Amino acid sequence: MAEGFDNVIVATGSRPKRFPLGAAQISVAEEVLNGQVEVGSDVAIIGGGLVGCELALWLANEGKGVTIVEQLEDILALNGPLCPANFEMLRALLDFKGVRIICGATAKGYEAGALIVGTADGDIEVKADNVVECVGYTPNSDLFEDLRYGKAKVNKIGDSRGVANIMNAIWDAYELASTI
Ligand SMILES: Cc1cc2nc3c(=O)[nH]c(=O)nc-3n(C[C@H](O)[C@H](O)[C@H](O)COP(=O)(O)OP(=O)(O)OC[C@H]3O[C@@H](n4cnc5c(N)ncnc54)[C@H](O)[C@@H]3O)c2cc1C
Q1: Distance 164 CA to ligand 1 centre (A)
Q2: Is there a single domain that holds both residue 119 and residue 146?
Q3: What is the CA radius of gyration of the chain?
Q4: Atom in ligand 1 nearest the alpha carbon of residue 51
């Protein structure tokens, strides 16, 4: 509801993308990081972007056996470039902590405690008590859509306008605030 306001700014963030692997053991990064899902000793992470790699490192530091499955030929390949120091350090730490990385590979399903992964050499099974999908985010603009035809002028900023990062959200906020 937006009664009695001249302007409403919607900053409702984003939602993680999910694809149906059809098993109760599948979750997303937020659920693991927020403690809503407790993972077992072997975890497969689908997606070797920044969220997948940072989650992998965190879980490895918790003593979990972690495998990253990435469909591109390398991890951390999208949405860059990262600062080279961060990029090199993250890669080195994943290696140091024994995180297994399988690139050029696609998650196909989950059966009997294993993630089925398609590779150039055929399907392989990755033992996993839990699978965490880290495959990106979509803007959450439901509230914006609900309010946009009301009396107030409605704007959206940050991830609800376009998924990016904290700096982008702050720039958005600053630019909008300067025009109101
Ligand atoms: C695991 C992870 C790690 C990240 N690490 C970094 C990083 O290191 N550096 C970086 O720059 N960015 C990072 N990001 C991205 C960054 O978190 C987002 O770009 C940033 O938080 C976007 O800010 P926002 O204010 O638009 O949305 P959010 O921070 O997502 O805030 C949206 C808020 O709106 C609330 N909300 C939603 N709907 C409603 C409603 N109907 N009514 C009331 N409240 C509602 C939500 O609960 C939430 O609190 C990371 C993202 C993830 C998922």
Answers
A1: 10
A2: no
A3: 19
A4: 1
The residue nearest atom 3 of ligand 1, judged by CA position, is: 51
> Quick one: tokens of 81?
């470039």
27 lies in the same domain as 98: yes
pLDDT of residue 161: 97
Examine the domain organization and report whether 130 and 142 are in the same domain.
Answer: no
Name the closest-CA residue to atom 21, ligand 1. Answer: 166
Verify whether ligand 1 is closer than 6 Å to residue 143 (CB atom). Answer: yes
Please check whether residue 32 lies inside any domain of the structure. Answer: yes
Number of domains composing the chain:
2
The pLDDT, as a whole number, for residue 63 is 97
Question: Over the chain (180 residues), what is each successive 10-residue block's mean pLDDT?
Answer: 88 94 88 96 97 98 98 89 88 98 96 94 97 97 93 95 95 95
- Take atom 37 of ligand 1 and give the residue whose Cα is closest: 12
User: Which residues fall within 8 angstroms of residue 48, CB to CB, at 6 or more apart?
Assistant: 68, 69, 70, 72, 74, 75, 76, 77, 101, 103
> How far does residue 18's CA lie from ligand 1's centre (Å)?
17
Pick the closest to residue 102 from 127, 129, 74 (CA basis): 74
Task: State the pLDDT at residue 35.
Answer: 96
> Residue for token digits 């009997």?
112
- Structural domain harbouring 61: 18-135
What pLDDT sits at residue 169?
Answer: 97
